[in-house]
Structure formats: C-alpha cells, structure tokens
Amino acid sequence: MTAARFGQFIAIDWSGARGERHKGIAIASCRLDGGAPVLLKRESGWSRADVLAMLRSDLADDTLVGLDLGIALPFVDAGAYFPGWPDSPPDCRRLWALVDDLCAGDLHLGADGVVDHPALSAYFRRHGGREGNRFHLAGAHHLRGRLRLTELWQERQGCKPYSNFNLVGAAQVGKASLTGMRVLHRLQGCAAVWPVDPLPSSGPVITEIYTALAAIAAGRTAARSKITDGDMLDHALATLGSRQIGQRGAIDDHSADALITAAWLRTVAHDETLWHPPALTEKIAATEGWTFGVR
C-alpha cells in the first residue's frame, strides 16, 4: 500500500507559452491534515526554470506532484511517436531526451526546436493553418488528432482531450506537454515519474494530471470546469472535503485549477485502484504514460 505514504500534495497548472514568466503557471499545495490548499507564489510570477528548480530540490519524500500536461505523445495507435521517421524514439524517457536535445537552443525551456524541426513539423498542427501532412494518421480517431490510450479513457469519464500533436486553440496542451517533457528529462534521479517509473516506497512522485477530472469530482462538469469566482471555488473545495479559502470576488482560473486539483489529489491519492488502472500495461506505461485518476 505504498500510495498511503503521501502527506503533501502539489498541483501545477502548466504553460507552454513563449517567454520567461507565465501567468498560466499556478502552483498549489496542501497537507494530509485537511487544511485549505495554498498558492505558492513568486513575486514576478513563475518561470518553467523556477518550477524545475523547485522540483529538483524542494520536495519532501512524502510529496505527490501533479503536472497538468501530457507526459508523452501518442505511440500505441501507430506503433511509434513519429511513424516513418527513422529516429523516432522507442519510449518516454528517450522521447524526453530527444525533445530536450532538439530544443537545446530554445530559451526558457521552450519547444520550438521540435515543432519547427524539418521532419517532425509534419506531425503537428501549428498556427497559421500549418497542419502537417502526418498530423492525421490511420490512428487518428477524429479531428482532434491522434490520442493516447489514457486520453481515450478520459473521454469515457466525460472529458474532451485534444491530441498532444495539436498546438492550436485554447484547448490545446501540445506546447505545455513538449515543454514539460524537457523538465521531466532534467528531473531524472530527483523524483519518480509514474507510471514510467513504478510507484516507489519512498521519495517524491510526479504524475500527469488533468484538472478537469478534479473539477468533475468537485461537482463541476468538463464543459464548466473553469472557476473564476471565490465563492464557487469554496463550494468546489467543500465538495472535496477540504477547508475553504475564503476569498471573495474574482480568482484567475489557473489558480483555481491548481487549488482544486491539489485538494483532489489529497482526496484520491490513497485509492490503490487509481494506481492500477486495468488498461495500463507495462508497454503503455513505458511509451505513453497515463493520467492519474483515469480509471
């Protein structure tokens, strides 16, 4: 019952936007004691480098971290991340290494080196109507593009995931996922990344999260998952059994997502069934990963 050892829970609403510091990055933390989650703030806002530094050095052994991004690209549907490209990596860790290597010249842990790559750009849908001729492959189930197995299961729980190869639109998470892969590569040896790594008996653990799942558990719907009002936030937290924040008036949706998801992680992290979803095999864990909370 290794999952029962967690005592601190951190949720990170991530951003793949260009630039150094981002309003879209919000971090919330809570302890097992049931206290209200709190926002962790930087005076000038968080950068991706700041978050990497925190994850490298500031995590207690009993910490579970949720990152709101995709930790891999689709693989199972076509037997490769980039089918037809001879250098397509065989698993998550080598995908992370490839992304970090190709983007070595991008400032602020950006990801232009992948999306503008002469061969790999064909697999992405980019701004300006630039949809690569390999964005839609035989494995693409619909116009949202290729999906990982965990994303197909997200749909069964009422969510509407988009392909990590899609870089266009408010619902896209492709840029966040690619920049997050750079961070995950640089965290090797600092924290386990479930399920790419087995759940360890000690030490901090990082998981992929989907904040809409937390919102649904808090009484919202996927279509109305975003909260921008303090009263609505308190209601959602109370639904999760958490103490309330007590903020009145407006709150940005990134902060609300992080606060609700931290409280949700505390509520569900000790459910052993969530660490052993029936569809998650060793092959899928190694190549596509999984979203914590997807059954």
Secondary structure: elements and pairs:
Elements: E1 8-13, E2 21-22, E3 26-31, E4 38-40, E5 46-47, H1 48-57, E6 63-68, H2 92-102, H3 112-115, E7 125-126, E8 130-131, H4 149-156, H5 174-186, E9 192-193, E10 205-208, H6 211-217, H7 230-239, H8 253-268, H9 282-287
Parallel strand pairs: 1-6, 6-10, 9-10
Antiparallel strand pairs: 1-3, 2-5, 3-4, 7-8
Walk me through the structure:
This protein is α/β, with parallel strands linked by helices and 295 residues long. The chain has two domains: 2-71 and 187-275, Nucleotidyltransferase, domain 5 (2-Layer Sandwich); 92-185, no CATH class. Helices cover 29% and strands 12% of the residues. It has helices at 48-57, 92-102, 112-115, 149-156, 174-186, 211-217, 230-239, 253-268, 282-287; strands at residues 8-13, 21-22, 26-31, 38-40, 46-47, 63-68, 125-126, 130-131, 192-193, 205-208. The strands form three sheets. It has a six-stranded mixed sheet with strand order 4-3-1-6-10-9. Helix 6 crosses helix 8 (253-268). The protein is globular.
Mean pLDDT: 94
Number of strands: 10
- SSE sequence, one letter per element: EEEEEHEHHEEHHEEHHHH
Question: What strand line-up does the widest sheet have?
Answer: 4-3-1-6-10-9
Please identify the structural class as seen in this structure: alpha/beta
CATH fold annotation of the largest domain: Nucleotidyltransferase, domain 5
Overall shape: it is globular
CATH architecture heading of the largest domain: 2-Layer Sandwich
User: Number of helical runs?
Assistant: 9
CATH class of the largest domain: Alpha Beta
What's the gyration radius in Å?
A: 18 Å
Strand residue percentage: 5-15%
Biggest sheet: strands, sense, closure?
6 strands, mixed
Give the CA-CA distance, first to last residue.
18 Å
| Unreliable stretches | none
Protein name: DUF429 domain-containing protein
